[in-house]
Design a protein that fits this description.
Protein name: ABC transporter ATP-binding protein
Keywords: ATP-binding, Nucleotide-binding, Transport
Bound molecules: adenosine-5'-diphosphate, magnesium ion
GO molecular function, one term: ATP binding
Strand order of the largest sheet: 5-6-7-3-8-9
Pfam family, one: ABC_tran
InterPro entries: AAA+_ATPase, ABC_transporter-like_ATP-bd, ABC_Transporter_VariousFunc, P-loop_NTPase
Number of helices: 5
Length: about 200
């Protein structure tokens, strides 16, 4: 689905990613951890093309589609949730209200709310960011620090959600400095000094 092959990313000679290599299979649920500043967000930006990698390559299958939440999701601040999500969906697809609604219900957001995004808390924005990464049935899902701002119940709902996505055969990669309990990862990596290494546990 996704092959990341000796990916490198430097900024003005500073090598942030020296070697990131991994392959995603359908249903993989992958954790990439490492401390603040180790390059987790940079790795996702290089995979999605927000940054042009300075070495190596990423190959995505022809039918595969990436859904990503990277750092702070940007929204149309004066518009409500439905307008924001339908705007994002319509860039490529139809907006599937009912399907999107299932994710909103699971995470405790109201898709029919008229509240503008500028009034949303960090946790609510984070949920909206997670939903846009999955609402178009994207099958390669990259979530960067997804638990930020989520309360205890929302963390449980989030873990259930990603476990279910993997069961559907979609691949999920979560980059986070911390652990979210209840996620059934099948692969663990650590990003340290620019090198991505697989752990056994
Ligand atoms: N656009 C950029 N220009 C220069 N340096 C950058 C840029 N983006 C990220 N970096 C640097 O890359 C390093 C890793 O950052 P980041 O990927 O945000 O780490 P993490 O997400 O693991 O906390 C940091 O030292 C950061 O300053
Ligand atoms: Mg980051």
């Amino acid at each position: 689905m996704l092959e990341v092959d000796h990916l490198q990313m430097s900024f003005q000679g500073q090598e942030v990613i020296k070697d990131a290599t991994f392959t995603l299979e359908p249903g993989d649920l992958v954790h990439i951890t490492g401390p603040n500043g180790c390059g987790k967000s940079t790795l996702f930006k290089a995979i999605t093309g927000i940054y042009q990698a300075t070495g190596g390559k990423c190959t995505l299958g022809e039918k595969d589609e990436i859904g990503a939440l990277i750092e702070n999701p940007g929204f149309l601040e004066f518009a409500d949730l439905k307008s924001n999500l339908s705007f994002l969906a319509k860039l490529k697809h139809e907006f599937d209200y009912n399907y999107t609604q299932t994710f909103c219900q699971r995470l405790g957001l109201d898709l029919a709310s008229k509240q503008r995004m500028s009034k949303y808390s960090i946790g609510m924005r984070q949920k909206a960011g997670i939903i846009q990464a999955v609402m178009e049935k994207q099958n390669v899902i990259l979530l960067d620090e997804p638990s930020r701002g989520l309360d205890a119940d929302s963390l449980l709902a989030f873990a259930d959600l990603v476990n279910d996505l993997a069961k559907e055969g979609r691949s999920v990669v979560i980059a986070s400095h911390d652990q979210v309990p209840g996620i059934n990862y099948n692969k663990h990596y650590v990003l340290e000094q620019g090198v991505l290494t697989q752990n056994e546990n």
